[in-house]
Amino acid sequence: MRLALYVTCLVDLMRPSVGFAALRLLEGLGGEVIVPEGQTCCGQPAWSAGNRALASDLARKAIAELEGYDAVVIPSGSCTDQIRNVYPQLFADDSHWGPRARALAARTYELTSFLADVAKQDLASAMFDGSVTYHDSCKGLRGLSIKRQPRELLMQVRGLSLKEMPDCEECCGFGGAFAVKFGEVSTQIVDRKCDSILAAGADAVVGGDLGCLLNIEGRLRRRGDETTRVLHIAEVLAGGCD
Fold first, then answer.
1. Sign of CA dihedral 8, 193, 140, 96
2. Across the beta sheet with 32-34, what order do the strands follow?
3. What global pTM score does this model have?
4. Sequence-distant contacts of 150-154: CB under 8 A, at least 24 apart
5. Across the chain, what does the average pLDDT equal?
6. How confident is the model at residue 240 (pLDDT cuts 50, 70, 90)?
7. Which domains are delineated in the chain?
8. DSSP tag of 19
9. Where residue 122 falls among pLDDT bands split at 50, 70, 90?
10. Strand residues in the chain grouped as ranges (E)
């Protein structure tokens, strides 16, 4: 199987270790894994801001770059949701780009969904010494029905114990530009999330969307919590968070 790893803008710019961890996980499957060099933004920020023209331009670019692979895997629920659910909407009435968008959408997977549901990867060699609690991101949970998959994978990791936080499905308050436009509201939301994380009593909070994790980590640190680790699930599964 020839796979494309779509690393996402935030991973590329803010925490490349997530991309390398995802790459190790996919290479462990034994197939060919390629990181397309020309990849840029999936267009979600433009779409969320109401700029359909820019979102469409970025979608066309991504489709052209990614459609030659057997599957596209993304360590982000939000970017996966954009390709799987929004691209077909953007080109619903376009006889040229519509079929291409739908074909790409059908071959695009969020990382944990691909590992658990398609590859059915055995992670018995993975190790993590400590407890984690899992944050369900909005796009992954509600847009892609990702709930079971990350937990199944985490429970395969030796030494790891999973402690569910209260209200694990609540938003973290990030929402891309929402955190900038509505800072006070966003802060109240992320404070609720931080309270839930602390109530779980875990050594680390883990998630599948780096935007959520950056928002959570920033608030935890501003509240004076310097000990709770904030990790992307790819880092835990690949053993890159020691």
1. negative
2. 32-34, 2-5, 71-74, 108-110
3. 0.94
4. 150/112, 150/116, 150/206, 150/208, 150/233, 152/116, 153/112, 153/115, 153/116, 153/121, 153/123, 153/233, 153/237, 154/206, 154/233, 154/236, 154/237
5. 95
6. low
7. 2-117 (no CATH), 124-238 (3.40.50.11810)
8. H
9. confident
10. 2-5, 32-34, 71-74, 108-110, 127-134, 158-162, 204-207, 229-232
Partner residues linked to 162 by β-bridges: 132
Backbone conformation region of residue 167, classed left if phi is above 0, alpha if psi is from -120 to 50, else beta: left
Q: Is the dihedral of CA 28, 33, 38, 44 positive or negative?
A: negative
| Higher pLDDT among residues 180 and 42, named by residue | 42
Q: What is the pLDDT of residues 90-100, one digit of tens each?
A: 999 999 999 99
CA distances from 128 to 25, 89, 125 (A): 15, 41, 10
Number of residues that make up the chain: 242
Compute CA distances 217 → 17, 74, 169, 180, 194, whole Å: 16, 21, 17, 16, 9
* Confidence at residue 178, expressed as pLDDT on a 0 to 100 scale: 84
Q: What pLDDT sits at residue 10?
A: 95
